[in-house]
Design goal:
Elements: E1 6-11, E2 18-23, H1 25-29, H2 48-76, H3 80-92, H4 95-122, H5 134-170, H6 181-194
Antiparallel strand pairs: 1-2
Helix pairs in contact: 2-4, 4-5, 5-6
């Protein structure tokens, strides 16, 4: 019996495991196994590296939610005079609430996208079933990109809100404040922080 085999990739979906298994041509004609060898699957055992990456997304999501709850508690215990000024600005610029909501949704989508990419990197295999050398580099680059996106989004939000507040605060006659101040500072912060 000829034991030579070739590796074929079986794709179980866009984000699922791609496993490589040996295909024996003699099994295709054999009916004693019940299925053709092209339908057989091999399951790779879970390694410590896989376990770390599967739990990594869970821990990062919990850290993110903890930071959101911490920020909410800081707003609750702040100075009442500052809160009064904040509410005046929010009433003067209602679009800043919409901007904060859209900004949070976009930040959450990008954060989860980084987690999905890190989970996808786990399942990159070479033809021998091991991990290629570039997987570790991909994980480092993905982690740095996630940190960069987080810092970029946070600083963009701070510059936009600070510029809007500064324009409102330093204008003597509040009726002279430009109507599209929030959009103007979104444009300014995008132009400055992207470069």
């Amino acid at each position: 019996m000829d034991r030579s085999f070739k590796h074929e990739a079986v794709n179980y979906g866009p984000m699922d495991v791609v496993s490589f298994y040996p295909r024996f041509p003699q099994l295709d004609q054999s009916s004693q196994f019940g299925k053709k060898s092209s339908e057989l699957q091999t399951v790779r055992s879970l390694t410590f590296y896989d376990w770390v990456h599967m739990t990594n997304g869970f821990y990062l999501t919990n850290i993110f939610h903890t930071l959101v709850l911490f920020a909410r508690s800081q707003c609750r215990h702040s100075n009442p005079l500052r809160n009064k000024q904040r509410f005046r600005i929010i009433l003067f610029f209602p679009s800043i609430i919409f901007y904060a909501f859209v900004h949070f949704i976009l930040f959450y989508i990008l954060w989860n996208w980084c987690l999905i990419v890190s989970e996808f990197i786990v399942y990159l295999d070479d033809f021998e079933g091991g991990y290629p050398a570039y997987v570790y580099v991909c994980n480092i680059v993905n982690g740095l990109a996630c940190i960069w996106i987080s810092v970029y989004m946070f600083e963009m939000f701070r510059v936009t809100v600070a510029g809007t507040y500064g324009t409102w605060y330093w204008t003597e006659n509040k009726r002279e404040v430009p109507r599209f101040t929030v959009l103007r500072f979104i444009y300014i912060s995008t132009r400055l922080y992207t470069s």
